[in-house]
Amino acid sequence: MKRPTLLLCSTLLLSTLLAPLTSATEHTNQTVVGKLQNSALKSDLAYKIAESLTVEVGPRLAGSAENVVAVDWAEAKLKSLGFDKVYREPVTVPVWQRGTASASVISPFPQQLVISALGGSVATPASGLQAKVVRFDNLAALINADAATVQGKIVFIDQKTERHQNGSGYGKSVGGRVNGAVEAARKGAVAVLIRSIGTDHDRMAHTGLMHYQQDVPRIPAAALTNPDANQLDAILSRGQEVTLSLNMSPKELGNTTTYNVIGEFTGSSKPDEIVLLGAHLDSWDEGTGAIDDAAGVAIVTAAAKMVAELPQRPARTIRVVLFAAEEIGLLGGKAYVAQHASDMANHYIAAESDFGAGRIYRADVRVNPAALAAVWQSLSGLTAMNVELGDNNARGGSEVSLLPGVGVPVASLRQDGNDYFDYHHTPNDTLDKIDPEALAQNVAVYAVFAYQMAQSTLPLRPLPKK
Amino acid sequence: MKRPTLLLCSTLLLSTLLAPLTSATEHTNQTVVGKLQNSALKSDLAYKIAESLTVEVGPRLAGSAENVVAVDWAEAKLKSLGFDKVYREPVTVPVWQRGTASASVISPFPQQLVISALGGSVATPASGLQAKVVRFDNLAALINADAATVQGKIVFIDQKTERHQNGSGYGKSVGGRVNGAVEAARKGAVAVLIRSIGTDHDRMAHTGLMHYQQDVPRIPAAALTNPDANQLDAILSRGQEVTLSLNMSPKELGNTTTYNVIGEFTGSSKPDEIVLLGAHLDSWDEGTGAIDDAAGVAIVTAAAKMVAELPQRPARTIRVVLFAAEEIGLLGGKAYVAQHASDMANHYIAAESDFGAGRIYRADVRVNPAALAAVWQSLSGLTAMNVELGDNNARGGSEVSLLPGVGVPVASLRQDGNDYFDYHHTPNDTLDKIDPEALAQNVAVYAVFAYQMAQSTLPLRPLPKK
């Protein structure tokens, strides 16, 4: 792996504060780090945790009965691993049930299409709806379209998702999923179908959250699988008008309470200062949520446990937060920030694992620029695990991305996401998609990161301006 | 590619008849073969045919309304390609409708499992059934089991299918699909679930034909996806009793008539002698039947067309038979053999394409051993397309495997099947699984085979004893 020497050098030049690189403490820390890394790479603890969650709980959509089972599972699991404190904090979530979803071509070539309702979608009328299809290359093309071409039709947003290691293809296409229904309804559409936000060629649709807007009619929204989107394209390419039938029965059933589940290993000398490792306990409802996000739950839980098993407990507290409701709008993270508002100054740094189980190839942070070079020095052991030390623009990922806004330094330990969007939000998100060795590498990286941050004497605040 | 020199040498020694290898006719044929091969490799005709069938017809289970559309499509396609004769021959088939199929774990870890009814299965009671699960490694273990361990339970046959280029893993595991219901019911089981006969890790179950037996109760039969079979294994491994709920609503609706669709390019000098190229028009009902068997339909149709476009029509008639109902028990092939009983002596040789769209890597034949060496000589051009010349034990594939029993020589033009059982009989059998270049290589091989066999002066009968 390449290490960004140039970036590191310029950071060194810019820095006004350099930690003493060869202090005795630092030397001791680096010795511990080597042992921690070795034991983590050999451990199957994370795989066992991921297996336990996916097998004994399975799908666990926030607001569902299964999610309650997951909360109980998480508390029991953290207790069984010997966390010093284990507790839950309430999060209010809407209850949405998927029901059934089917689509078919009525004409010119009658056949079934495979779809999945987008999360939060309303139902069609009970008898379904039938309408002609109008296709757009992407959300922008829909926004720019004449309403007369859309009125009364089913809008088909047909943007392919690009495959990239860092997952950047997702950001380019996901707007159609999130905002497609609003933009289509503004122009009088009766429903919206999107090409799945996914990089696979499997006959499984990718669900995911969509939004409505108060002043715009709520129309049903679903994703076609990539092969079905290809099929609809091919049918449309014949030049005839294409009529689809759509039948979806999701239900909204008010609100309920679920919980962020929190486990802590108390710090030895700075117990009130927190290194936060996050992941999310909820999943979508069609897979067993293995890569999204049993892997993250397993990685951060196992990493904390590995650190706690060291002969010497580090200075700061390591807090694992298993967020309640990431998939349906970072609701667990928002509740955490609200409930811990008075406590945020004690959060030394935070990171979240929510991008599958691929190997970590790069670390970015968002810390006091004056401390950056020394932070990289303290994390230099990561390069032995093929982790490139990156930049100071980390967002922190998922719920943890809410924390820089309230002053908390964050890190993004970036996972190889080349295949993440093959499985993301599909029934295919199952345990077999996790490579145990790659998972263990994640644990080792998180463990080293957590240990060094729990021991660090660097001032990570204030954050750089955006 | 290796050529089996040893086998060829021994065949040469055994042969009593050797064709004149360097005759003027043979020289002309080989020149034609080179041109035919080049034009076939460049042609996208087969891909267009496969695209047309999968898009304009889609799924086409024998006995369904969609299958009637497929028969009309096939007649129209062969006519549009200029076949000299196009006709249909009736085949009686049972009508089976899949209905819905769902399964869930009731205890100890409630969750849905993804299943697909096996073809021909009966329904559960309308309210479903619930029973404990008993697992077996394979069909043999079930057959050897004490009935007391099976009585009243859902049998789970958990054999994995091995991946091999020649597809030989299928034969080892498919017995559980075909005979699992009978063997489980003999011991008092209430239903049977099999691990999908497939090599993938996708959350899609592999359907396929199963059988009942007159003196044994008919119990519902379904396939779990590989990830769901893993999940059930993991749940069972906890050592608790596992209770499943199963609800399936397939229907049997008597018999109907469908059709083998036949197209011929008439031979120039031996019009009554037939080189038969087969494939099957029907598919399972959950995918669009791209690799099974729109690919075969496309390959043999395009190959015949390429030969017919040569400046000189070859001696024998090339007959393309698009069989009506392979998936549900070779019913199209059986009808063909019955209807053409008096005509079988005129079938010079036959081959069928029904193993996807992977490149052909080997040719086997089943011909008069005395002619074998000369047959290989005439087909030696195939080696330029990386096709190994194999043995004299070909079965001919699918329906054509019925023909050696009535004296007809056959060839097996073997396709690379490494990924065939990733998609076979699943919703994932869609057009994107066909590689256009590999498809064109198939066309080129079939075209060369068809041309040389239509021109051959070798006596291919009698067949070797088994």
TrEMBL record, chains A, B:
Keywords: Carboxypeptidase, Endoplasmic reticulum, Glycoprotein, Golgi apparatus, Hydrolase, Lysosome, Metal-binding, Metalloprotease, Protease, Secreted, Signal, Zinc, Zymogen. It comes from the Bacteria. Residues 1-24 form the signal peptide. InterPro entries: CPQ, Peptidase_M28. Residues 260-447 form the Peptidase M28 domain. The keyword Endoplasmic reticulum applies. It holds the Pfam family Peptidase_M28. SUPFAM superfamilies: Zn-dependent exopeptidases. It is found in: Endoplasmic reticulum; Golgi apparatus; Lysosome; Secreted. Homodimer. The monomeric form is inactive while the homodimer is active. This is Carboxypeptidase Q. It comes from Shewanella dokdonensis.
